[in-house]
TrEMBL record:
Domain HpcH/HpaI aldolase/citrate lyase: 6-224
Nucleus among keywords: no
Protein EC: 4.1.3.34, 4.1.3.6
Amino acids binding Mg(2+): E125, D156
Source organism phylogeny: Bacteria, Pseudomonadati, Pseudomonadota, Alphaproteobacteria, Hyphomicrobiales
InterPro entries, per the entry: Aldolase/citrate-lyase_domain, Citrate_lyase_beta/mcl1/mcl2, Pyrv/PenolPyrv_kinase-like_dom, Pyrv_kinase-like_dom_sf
Protein name as it appears in the record: Citrate lyase subunit beta
Length: 297
């Protein structure tokens, strides 16, 4: 099933007003955060507020994700218990380093009797995770696997590796591409990390466009002001939709039957282009449905 993940907004679990506001924002997904945005002494209250918000519902078609603290932290046991109780669409675990973390997370959720529909997202933000990206992705192919998405953490990677974060992120492109290829090899979605300067609309739009062109499914956000640009940039354009419809129509013609490639509007297109076109149209339909659902929420 295609699910839009153009804009996935972090919301502090300790901020009750933010959790309430999440019900009316046009983001494709909301991450209820228990990690970086929540002080240690505020984490119990944040868990309680997230549990209450999840129980009340009202988020429409938005994807609901809980970001826990890392497996090695003192908060993981209570955070994972909340995940099993609250039954989000997914839970996001930071600071994974390799397949052993995926196994430990799965074992903990199974021991808690967590519903099998709850998917696992992981933050790729450590040097070891980058080095082990193919092995981590391969965990998605195991029986009863929950692993469904990667979220890149460029700022943490920069901190640990000393790779400088510059406009355009040229120094990190090869790293991003390795993660995208690993994700696609095992059917995993992949989201770009947040853009910290939410007052810089131009810089944010440029980074969204770069992420889209590198193959990311969407972007994680830290401020509601970033939603509109992410939704627009990761949405198929009118020209892309027209081209997709034209390619599908061309292959539907009797003279295209049995052909692997045909001439269309002055160029050769293959069956793989028709497959890409069908995905483009399916994504547009999924976005239209989600926008309809969130408007009604």
């Amino acid at each position: 099933m295609i699910r839009p993940r153009r804009s996935v907004l972090f919301m502090p679990g300790s901020n009750a007003r933010a959790l309430e506001k999440a019900r009316s924002l046009p983001a494709d997904g909301v991450i209820f955060d228990l990690e970086d945005s929540v002080a240690p002494d505020a984490k119990p209250a944040a868990r309680a507020q997230i549990a209450q918000a999840m129980a009340q519902g009202g988020f429409g078609g938005r994807e609901r994700i809980i970001r826990t603290n890392a497996v090695a932290s003192a908060f993981w046991q209570d955070d994972s218990a909340l995940v099993a109780q609250a039954r989000p669409d997914a839970y996001l675990v930071p600071k994974v380093t390799g397949p052993q973390d995926i196994a430990a997370i799965g074992a903990r959720l199974d021991a808690l009797g967590a519903d099998s529909s709850i998917k696992l997202w992981v933050m790729i933000e450590t040097p070891l995770a980058v080095l082990s990206i193919a092995e981590i992705a391969a965990c998605a192919g195991e029986k009863d696997a929950r692993l469904a998405a990667f979220v890149i953490g460029p700022n943490d990677i920069s901190l640990d590796t000393r790779i400088r974060m510059k406009p355009g992120r040229a120094e990190m492109v090869s790293l991003f591409l390795n993660c995208v290829i690993a994700a696609r090899s095992y059917g995993i979605e992949i989201l770009d990390g947040p853009y910290s300067d939410f007052s810089d609309a131009g810089g944010f739009a440029a980074e969204c466009a770069q992420a889209r062109d590198l193959g990311f499914d969407g972007k994680t956000l830290i401020h509601p002001a970033q939603i509109e640009a992410a939704n627009r940039i990761f949405k198929p354009t009118d020209d892309e939709l027209a081209e997709a419809r034209g390619i599908i129509a061309a292959f539907a013609q009797p003279e295209a039957a049995g052909k692997g490639a045909i001439r269309h509007e002055g160029r050769m297109v293959e069956r793989l282009h028709a497959e890409m076109a069908r995905r483009t149209l399916a994504m547009a339909d999924a976005i239209a449905k989600l926008e309809q659902d969130t408007t009604r929420a």
